[in-house]
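Hey all, quick one. A colleague (J.T.) asked me to put the iron/sulfur cluster job into the tracker so the inputs and the structure tokens live in one place instead of scattered across chat threads. No bug as far as I know, just bookkeeping. Sequence used:
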Amino acid sequence: MTNSTRWSYSRLAAYLSRCSLQYYFRYVAKIEPERTSSRLAFGSAIHAGLEEAHRSWKSGEPVPLEVAQAAFAADLEIRLNDPILEFRKDETPEGLIDQGKGLLAAWADEAEYQEVIDAEHEFSVPVVHPKTGEVLDAELTGIIDLLVKVPGSSSPLVVDFKTSARRFSASQLDFDLQAAIYGYAIRSIYRVDTVPMRWEVLVKTKRPGIQKIEFVRGSDGDARLFELVRAAERGVAADVFHPNDGSMWCSGCSFASACSRWEENPNAIPVDSARALSRTDS
Ligand code: SF4
């Protein structure tokens, strides 16, 4: 398995759902991104604040909210110094820090202390077809925000935190690739039939809101997940990379300049020339 592809949720979604050309620039050519967004920086910093809180829960000595807020602010300040970061209109570093502290305060108001198995739990599991037993030369990998003990259950509760401008709809979970991967991984590791999960959405409305969506994942989607990984493996091996023009991912794309010249060499962009394109743009 040493040379097998490690498919995280981000990587698989990038290839299958967003844009295969963007996937190529990021994961194959590995060219330098030309921009990144304050939204991504903000979400990562919120995770840093929550991780601080949950690691203290795991140690049995929960820290006050202010410590988690300070971890968030310190992380965000570093990220906002990235020279390629783009702010949205009317955004300021101070405003983002206030917004993040407000979201964490809203989260803390509703948080119930739970026995934590692990925070930022890394996993790597083989990709096995549930009926035929076929094993792909690939792994599913990831880092789960939080694993919590469930009294009387062999399976932990999987918790994932998200920041969003609006509340999630329940229908978004029907084909949620991240839930499919996390559920598959935890069932493989703990050898259980079902996994309880909770998505906690920190909603960036004027008055911060916390939406908790609880659901259970069984093996129903395993064959589909297996075939999705196989499709991605085949596509990448065959150099199938093309733009997804007009998609919601084009706005603010980190590789827009390289993409704008894709048609000059559409069949395959050699890694070196892709890097050259990127250097020319900077
Ligand atoms: S600009 Fe759009 S089509 Fe081009 S790489 Fe980015 S997401 Fe894909």
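Adding what we noticed when we looked at it: The CA atoms of residues 40 and 79 lie 9 Å apart. The chain has three domains: 16-32+245-282, 35-110, 116-231.
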